[in-house]
């Protein structure tokens, strides 16, 4: 017989997963964690999570590759992608593959919990009055190139024709909101 849990957190950042699990447990939720594809699939066979928080960029794979397998094992589970490497293409693919929602890190526990409740489209969502700032576009472009280079700072700096230290300084900054 399988055990029921409210949340399964799949993230290769063990500290982040532990902190999020502790925060959810303090709110009364049953929580399990996994760090990779195999651990996630094992956790799903031993437990039946209602909600899955899935990191987009796992050490050896993309969370996108895991969505279909998770939906096959647990068709009613809701999946929220949580990532520091957000982009429009990965958002679109995650939703097409069956994710319920997509959040950018950093996200609060309340935002994560709320993301599971937003299962219907909202055509009334506010459309920005202005396009994103150049700083925001630069940050998104750097994140995309970093993702393409599998997190390798030196390769990303070469691809962007940027000094490695300059890139490191830009990466230490929080994402520009607008």
Name the descriptors:
17% strand, 5-stranded parallel sheet, alpha/beta, Arc Repressor Mutant, subunit A, 5 strands, 8 helices, 178 residues
Task: Put the structure in a nutshell.
The protein is of the alpha/beta class and 178 residues long. The protein has 8 helices and 5 strands, in the order E-H-E-H-E-H-E-H-E-H-H-H-H. It has 2 domains: 3-117, Response regulator (Rossmann fold, 3-Layer(aba) Sandwich), CATH 3.40.50; 134-172, Homeodomain-like (Arc Repressor Mutant, subunit A), CATH 1.10.10.
Overview of the molecule:
There is one protein chain. The chain has 178 residues and is α/β, with parallel strands linked by helices. The protein folds into two domains: 3-117, Rossmann fold (3-Layer(aba) Sandwich); 134-172, Arc Repressor Mutant, subunit A. Helix content is 47%, strand content 17%.
**Strand order in the sheet with the most strands:** 2-1-3-4-5
Low-pLDDT sequence parts: none
Using the alpha-carbon principal axes, give the shape: globular
CATH class of the largest domain: Alpha Beta
The Cα radius of gyration reads 17 Å
The structural class is: alpha/beta
Q: CATH homologous superfamily name of the largest domain?
A: Response regulator
Q: What is the distance, rounded to the nearest whole angstrom, between the alpha carbons of the first and last residues?
A: 48 Å
Q: Architecture of the largest domain in CATH?
A: 3-Layer(aba) Sandwich
Number of helices: 8
Q: Tell me the count of domains.
A: 2
Q: List the helices and strands in order.
A: EHEHEHEHEHHHH
**Largest β-sheet summary:** 5 strands, parallel
Let me know the number of strands. 5
pLDDT averaged residue by residue: 85
Give the CATH topology of the largest domain: Rossmann fold
Helical percentage:
40-55%
Strand residue percentage: 15-25%
């Amino acid at each position: 017989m399988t055990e029921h849990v409210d949340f399964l957190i799949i993230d290769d950042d063990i500290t982040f997963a532990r902190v999020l699990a502790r925060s959810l447990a303090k709110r009364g939720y049953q929580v399990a964690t996994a760090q990779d594809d195999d651990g996630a699939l094992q956790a799903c066979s031993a437990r039946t999570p209602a909600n899955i928080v899935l990191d987009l960029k796992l050490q050896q794979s993309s969370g996108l590759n895991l969505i279909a397998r998770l939906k096959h094992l647990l068709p009613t589970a809701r999946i929220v992608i949580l990532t520091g490497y957000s982009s429009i293409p990965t958002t679109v693919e995650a939703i097409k593959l069956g994710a319920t929602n997509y959040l950018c890190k950093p996200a609060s526990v309340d935002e994560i919990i709320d993301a599971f409740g937003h299962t219907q489209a909202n055509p009334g969502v506010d459309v920005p009055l202005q396009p994103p700032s150049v700083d925001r576009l630069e940050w998104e472009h750097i994140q995309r190139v970093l993702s393409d280079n599998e997190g390798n700072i030196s390769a990303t700096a070469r691809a962007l024709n940027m000094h490695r230290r300059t890139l490191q300084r830009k990466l230490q900054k929080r994402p520009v909101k607008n």
